[in-house]
Amino acid sequence: MSRIRKSNVAFFAGLCLLFSLWELSIPKPVSFVRLGLGNCALMLALFTGFSFKEFAVLVLLKVAGSAILGGTFFSYVLLLSLSSSLASSLALYALYRTRLFSFVGLAVLSAAVGNIAQLSVAIAILGRPAIALAPIILGFGLFTSIVLGAFTQHYVSSSRILDRLQDCKLPKPSEKGSYWPLCWIGMSLCLLILDDVRLQAALMAIALIATIVKGLRLNLGMNLVSFSAIVILSLLSPSGLVLLDLGWLSITQGALIIGLKRAITLIGTLYYSRLASGALMKLSSRSELLGSSLAVFSLFSSRPVGLKRKAKLGPGLSEFLDQSIASVLDCQHD
Fold first, then answer.
1. Is residue 50 one of the residues assigned to a domain?
2. How many independent structural domains does the chain possess?
């Protein structure tokens, strides 16, 4: 890719990360449920003429950058995000090339493909009881994809800034971060390898304590909901000695241990991944495109018009996004 095309890829990757940050701030019933806000940036990239190679690189940068910022790089959540993003993005590109669908149609169909892929991986990780998550995953996906498709359709018809994206420059990657948090990656791997639920619980406790010491937010409410949901789903497949019979649900020892292991591993690796994000930020500066994408994201989140200003849906939100993009482009030209 030429330097100008690398600039476009890095710019849209940074925009994807901005949408991903907004998505992280929206409460969800289960932590790994995706709303797909980043797909809006992917549709805009296709609209501006991305080739398949550029689009594929953009999708990988979106997944990697979102995992670094969200602290999920060394957790099962990355597998869920990767499967969903790859499936939905391939479908989005193929459907866009047909020129038969509006942005609403593109968003709905690609989200359906991505959500089915995500649900398949969730079943592989959590077992067949994860099928109970289908209404939540598919329901959220349908609603948000309709909204995102409608917004994208409105934005491309009203934006006054999209034509300026061909002139953006490649920002310098940040050198922030350190290598020492790589030890947390080792702890995460131990959590995946160990089979003793007591040792796994101890490792998860260490992750929680370290998170508190570093001053990171715990998100205990959302994680408690996810933890409980995983355990309850596992109990739906009875196994071993019956510990408690509630009539409609039998709590068995084998199913309970399996559920606890799955929940502890999922939540524990998520926190260790967050703790290791500092090392990943440092390592990302060695990659021109990934480092530049994170630099673009930093510009988006630090500009006065960025995350500090609220906007209503419709024309107000379109104008808000235009101003955010314009402020970053102006900053790069300074």
1. yes
2. 2
Print the SS3 string covering the chain.
CCHHHHHHHHHHHHHHHHHHHHHHCCCCCCCCCCCCCHHHHHHHHHHCCCCHHHHHHHHHHHHHHHHHHHCCCCCHHHHHHHHHHHHHHHHHHHHHHHCCCCHHHHHHHHHHHHHHHHHHHHHHHHCHHHHHHHHHHHHHHHHHHHHHHHHHHHHHHHCCCHHHHHHCCCCCCCCCCCCCCHHHHHHHHHHHHCCCHHHHHHHHHHHHHHHHHCCCCCCHHHHHHHHHHHHHHHHCCCCCCEEEECCCCEEEHHHHHHHHHHHHHHHHHHHHHHHCHHHHHHHHCCCHHHHHHHHHHHHHHHCCCCCCCCCCCCHHHHHHHHHHHHHHHHHHHC
pLDDT by residue (tens digit) across 77-133? Answer: 677 778 888 899 999 999 999 989 999 999 999 989 988 888 888 788 777 777 777
Please, which pLDDT band fits residue 304 given cuts at 50, 70 and 90? very low
At which of 247, 275, 303 does a domain end? Answer: 275
Is 162 found in the same domain as 250? no
Q: Are residues 236 and 95 part of one domain?
A: no
Model pTM above 0.90: no
Question: Which range marks the domain in which residue 93 is found?
Answer: 3-175+287-333
